[in-house]
Design brief:
alpha/beta; TIM Barrel; 2 domains; eight-stranded parallel beta sheet; 13 helices; 8 strands
Length: 419
């Protein structure tokens, strides 16, 4: 530090320590592990989880549509350690699921995708019937359609006829799956099924429920359906909570909230003897295109098949916080290096605090981009905005510095561009 600024060393060092402590506190506070009661363990398997076998860069809209048998095999090997069964949604490309499930001791609730195209629907239904009859030791139930009434792709009467068609040709129980309100709006469906499959997703309700009220809401609806449709059984066919994405009123996505919901729900379901299927086994990035970022983060495992800590053990909202702390710390020190000596005691205090705030802001923006950016165009915007923030950071740092030599020239260049 130059002689003109040597007197500022004590406040400068104090502000540096304060900035580093602030960065460490920020990232640890965001990522601090939270302990919750476990839902699953090596000796306690859960009932069922929704399964779609896409890699993180795949979607059902890809043409040509191809699924890797080795991916399905590895997935079911992993899920068999935690679950007794899986639920599927379509027959297309999944004809081999029962054989692989049998290999790992899993049961399958086999689904057919029903939509407004009668040719596609007929193909799905025929494949469903054939697979169910060929694999009665593995297929525990068949699900004719998923949220088809919600999407308004077929009428209630047409759906009831499809269910009756399947029921007359298979030996296993038959059901249909939809958000709970649509069972009430289409009363002709319930008499056709062996049991009702209802979706209870407090985050997606028209009146979203926050995490503190979500389990009470699920319990209330499940009891209401149990009473209304007795003696038919009720399967909670989808329930869960997102770990990332936008907040809907009081419903806040986070890993800790996902773990709170799933672990609390499993305890409630087991206490009451309810059947359930959790949504979903793995994060599905392709869903972000239609549902926003939140659609890609309902998995119990991430898209790379890494455990998110939802079911057991400590869980963190930001498991990568040490890496972000290191990145922010590096940016903090680089800002100080770019600035060099300061002019006075006031700037000696301000510079490290500016460096810490800038490093934290860019790090938080990077984490937001990691979870929300979906394609190359959005990542390009991320790079451009981070670059712009780095320029602003450098300009602010030089404005507080003593500015001699190349620093003075750099500051003058930035000033000229901003004029």
């Amino acid at each position: 530090m130059s002689s003109t600024a040597r007197f500022a060393l004590p406040p400068y060092l104090f502000a540096c320590l304060l900035g580093l402590f602030a960065l460490a506190g920020l990232w640890y506070g965001l990522g601090k592990p939270v302990m919750l009661p476990d839902a699953a363990s090596a000796t306690h398997k859960l009932q069922c989880a929704s399964y779609t076998p896409f890699d993180k860069d795949q979607s059902p809209f890809d043409q040509p549509f191809t699924l890797r048998p080795e991916r399905i095999d590895a997935d079911l090997a992993l899920l068999s350690k935690r679950f007794e069964c899986i639920r599927t949604y379509s027959m297309t490309g999944l004809e081999g699921i029962p054989d692989i499930a049998r290999k790992y001791g899993l049961k399958v609730m086999l689904g057919a995708w029903v939509n407004g195209n009668p040719v596609d629907t007929d193909k799905e239904v025929r494949a469903l019937i054939a697979s169910a009859n060929a694999n009665t030791d593995v297929v525990s139930a068949v699900i004719v359609g998923n949220e088809t009434l919600l999407r308004k792709e077929v009428t209630g009467d047409r759906l009831a006829a499809l269910i009756a068609q399947v029921k007359s040709q298979v030996q296993v129980p038959v059901t249909y799956a939809d958000v709970w309100e649509f069972w009430l709006q289409h009363p002709q469906i319930a008499p056709q099924v062996d049991f009702l499959t209802i979706h209870l997703l407090p985050y997606w309700e028209d009146d979203p429920r926050g995490i503190d009220d979500a389990l009470a809401h699920v319990g209330e609806i499940r009891r209401e359906f149990g009473n209304k449709f007795a003696p038919k059984d009720i399967l909670i066919g989808e329930t869960g909570w997102p770990s990332e994405g936008r907040q809907r009123e009081t419903a806040v996505p986070s890993r800790v909230n996902e773990a709170r919901f799933i672990r609390g729900f499993v305890a409630m379901a087991e206490e009451n003897g309810w059947r359930y299927n959790l949504i979903e086994a793995f994060d599905q990035p392709w869903k972000r295109a239609s549902e926003g970022a939140v659609g890609g983060y309902w998995g119990l495992y991430d898209a790379d098949r890494q455990d998110k800590g939802v079911l057991e053990g400590p869980v963190s909202n930001l498991p990568f916080w040490p890496q972000w702390l290191i990145a922010s710390g590096v940016l903090f020190f680089l800002t100080l290096v770019v600035a060099g000596p300061v002019r006075n005691a006031r700037n000696a205090l301000a510079l490290p605090l500016l460096a810490a705030i800038g490093a934290a802001s860019i790090g938080l923006w990077g984490e937001l981009a990691r979870t929300n950016a979906r394609f190359a165009g959005e990542w390009l915007w991320v790079v451009l905005l981070v670059g712009l923030n780095l320029i602003v950071q450098a300009h602010g740092a030089l404005a507080l510095s003593a500015r001699d030599g190349w620093r003075e020239r750099a500051f003058a260049w930035l000033e000229a561009r901003g004029a």
